[in-house]
Each structure stands twice: as C-alpha cells, then as structure tokens.
Description:
Blueprint: H1 3-6, H2 11-38, H3 46-72, H4 83-105, H5 110-117, H6 119-131, H7 138-157, H8 168-191, H9 197-218, H10 228-254, H11 257-261, H12 266-279, H13 282-285, H14 288-305
Helix pairs in contact: 2-5, 2-10, 2-12, 3-4, 3-9, 3-10, 4-8, 4-9, 5-8, 5-12, 6-7, 6-8, 7-14, 9-10
Amino acid sequence: MNKDTRILTRPLVVCGIALLCCTLWGSAFPSIKIGYRLFSIQGEDTMSQMLFAGYRFTLAGILVILIGSFFKKKFLWPKKSSWFMVVKLGCVQTIFQYVFFYTGLAHTTGVKSSIITASNVFFAIFLSAAVFREKLSAGKLLGCLAGFAGVVLINVAGGGAGDTGLSLAGEGAMLVSAFASAFSSVMIKRYSGHEDTFTLCGYQFFFGGIVLAMIGLACGGRVTGFTGPSTLLLVYMGLISAVAYSLWSVLLKYNPVGKVAIFGFSNPVIGVILSAILLGEKNQAFTLQGLLALLLVCIGIFTVNYSKE
C-alpha cells in the first residue's frame, strides 16, 4: 500500500467518508417515497417500482463510469476476466437487493425501512468473519449487539401514523434486502483485488439497472410525470448511488469489511431524521425509545471501531 492509499486506512478518514456515504444513503429512503408520489407510482405497482429503480441505477452506472474515467484519465472498461464478476455483483447488489428494497419501501414507512436496513451491518460483520476470517473480538461483538439492539428497539417501539405493523411484503422484504447488501459488501472486498472499484461499481450498476428497467417495461410498468422537480430528484438519486457506493467500495478495498460496515449503523440515525422531516413520520422518530435506540447505535459504532482485535 503506497502513501496515497494509506490515508484511506486512517480512522478519521474512514469515519468521514463512511458517514458521508451513510448520509447519502439515509436520504434515499424519503427520496424514493417522494419519487413514488411525484411519478404517481402506487404501492401495489411492483413493475413500475422496478422500472423506476432501473432508471435510477442505469443513470448511476453511467455517472460512476464517467466520474471514474475522469479521475483515472482514461475510459474505464472491465478486463475480460472481470465481466463475470460484474454480472454476479450486479445480480446481488443491484437486482436482487433492490427488487426487495423498492418493494419493501412501498409497503412500510421510511422510518422503519431506515432502521431495518441497518441490520446489513450485523450481517456484514459476521459474514466477513466467516469468509475472510476477520477476528470477531469481544469489543466488536458487544458493539454489534449494542447497535443491533438500537435497531430492534426503535423498530418494535415504532407506532403512530403510517405504521401498519409487520408484513412480509414490507419489513420482511427490507430484511432480505439488508442481507443482500451485506453479502455484496463481502463480494466487493473479494473482487476489488482483481478489478478497479470504480469499474466494478459503474458496470454492475449499469447492468443491474438495465435488467431492472427491462423487467419493469416487459411486465407493464410505467413511470410518468417527468417534470423539473421529479427529474432533478431522479438525478439526485442516481448521484446517491454513484458517489456513495464508489466511495464505500474504495474503503472496502483498503480496510477490513467489519471496520467499514459498522458505520452502516448510522444509516437509521440519518434515515429516521430525514423521514421524520420530509415524510412527516415524527410519531415514529422523535420518541424516548427512538432517542435511546439512536444512542445505542452510536455506542455500537464507537465500541467496534475502538475495540482491540
């Protein structure tokens, strides 16, 4: 590792970049639900949701490829041996994960979705211990348990407007999406040793986005109502994926999966706050249980990152 890349392993740098990524991802929850409203996509219209996701990730793929090409000063193109990795990663990280993500988000609140998605951290840390033999110290385990306790607490304490209880189509789908996200983190860690991370991210997004859009179109999905605000929202959502996943993948390349993944527990903090403000879900967010849950999340992040191996 040279001097330029060694900086990416410093705790403050990892913390800053990871929290930027999580802020972007946290904003995705209210953004998607607002997008459903602007584009007149109903909760039961799964194929239109897939088409909407396909537009977003196709755009994200193009943006990542262009941004990466600018920084590398050459057009990014996967090596011949990397195409199979691109396809596998696209199937897990974009297609499988977001079929369940977009479906689940249409059937539950932004607050609950933000919280359940944070369980991908729990999955990722244990998957990395199993796959890469990353040591799961007592401190890491306690940090994970504290953070996950916060996730569970705010979920079971949720109530009020917009909370329709637990369902397989809503909360169940979000949990499956969270596992797919964790599994893709392990895949990125493995594949980044063979291919540039910008190239991997850009082409897997593009491939996954095209497949999602084709599924949506072939099955009768429709996305209408393109106006100035709705188009800007779609572009912003493409940028969320382009910037956040690219930076996250760079962190995963130079750091243990567990060291990076733990910051995902900040997703519910940001997602809950933004969903409360932008979607009016204050009855689920700003409660005593909610504040206690977010405190547990922060304790979990601190404990994992400063625990001894």
